[in-house]
Amino acid sequence: MDAFTRRRFLLASGVTGAAALAAGGGALAFSRLLGSADRGSEPPGETVVLVTLYGGNDGLNTVIPYADPAYHASRPELAYSAEKVLPLNDALGLNPVLTGLKRLWDDKRLAIVLGVGYPRPDRSHFRSMDIWQTGTPEAPATTGWIGRWLDDIKAPVETAVSFEPVLPPLLVGRQRIGSCISYQGLDLPPWVDAGLVAELGRVEPGEPAMQARAASAYADLLEMRRVIKGADEATGSPKAAAEPAVPATGTGGESALSAQLALVARCVEVGVPTRVYSVSLGGFDTHADELSAQELLLRQLDTALSSFVDRMVQSEAGRRVTVVVYSEFGRRVRANASDGTDHGTAGPMLVLGHRVAGGFYGEQPSLTDLDQGDLKATADFRDVFGSILGSVLKADPSRYFDGYEPRLLPLLTHA
After folding, report:
1. How far apart are CA 160 and CA 176, in angstroms?
2. Does a structural domain hold residue 223?
3. Which InterPro entries does this one have (predicted)?
4. Which of 69, 302, 329, 381 is most buried, judged by most C-beta within 10 A?
5. Has residue 215 been placed in a domain?
């Protein structure tokens, strides 16, 4: 099929896909990533999946201090009653929609690090996220803490992978960077058959290199579509029903976390040597009508994470996967006049997986001893990320945080 015919058909049919549009853009192809697996060797080393919640998740309505009168007094219209929360102990409980995470907590596969932040907090989405991803609160940096680790080990291209449209700064080093593979597969109109698109994805002898690359990109998108569709069928829930559109906030993050994690799961199960995956969920900038908006998001998070962890425990490689969930900041203690919350500081981080030593780590911040209305962080985010570097990636965490010496937490068991 010549280039003009191929292009005319694709435009006329309304077939879209991010990878096809980026076919010449240097992104790692999903098929190439799967092809890097050595199925006859020992399983790859331990793996970390970093889940970024863009927008600033309200930690106080995620891990809820339901027994604290100050919580109810500060946000009477947003506070959850003790009867509604999923209790974790006599002081803290999970948001009512986080039933999957509550089950993982009961199974000792969920750790919650309380009050995580950094010195002199910045309430800008972009600066604060930059701090979390570069690991340098003191001054802006041009590399991410994972990127610096990639430099150190002279990592091949498949070592760190983001299933997001844009490569996050987290995975950028000076000499090495992670790969970016958008989870967004083909969007086929009802009248276009997938088999026809597969034919378009067959490289013809003698095709120009760029035309052949565009063709293979469509074949790649079909494979991603198959993996995601298979994950939806395995959970018994149509993707559209499981993951409705999230509120747009412009702060970053994707809206199909289950789809991204399905691709991660496939890579883990076939033995891809990737050590770090980055995925995201956006929409957490809840300045107004927070209760319904955050519950929608947390329900998606709960379904995606619990299904992923359950799937991972079924294989040896999956049992070596640790998931870390973070957001750029929490929200203010007091509600605003729009039944929402504004940009705050500290919040909880979640660590999940088969090897996780479940339970609470750190200290819940006071709701009365505040810094201009905001929580005072009781843990530094570099302690959590440093612990992951040391226990999962087997690296010296003091090398990657610009002179900061992380206080390591016993988040993982040796089982």
Report:
1. 10
2. no
3. DUF1501, TAT_signal
4. 329
5. no
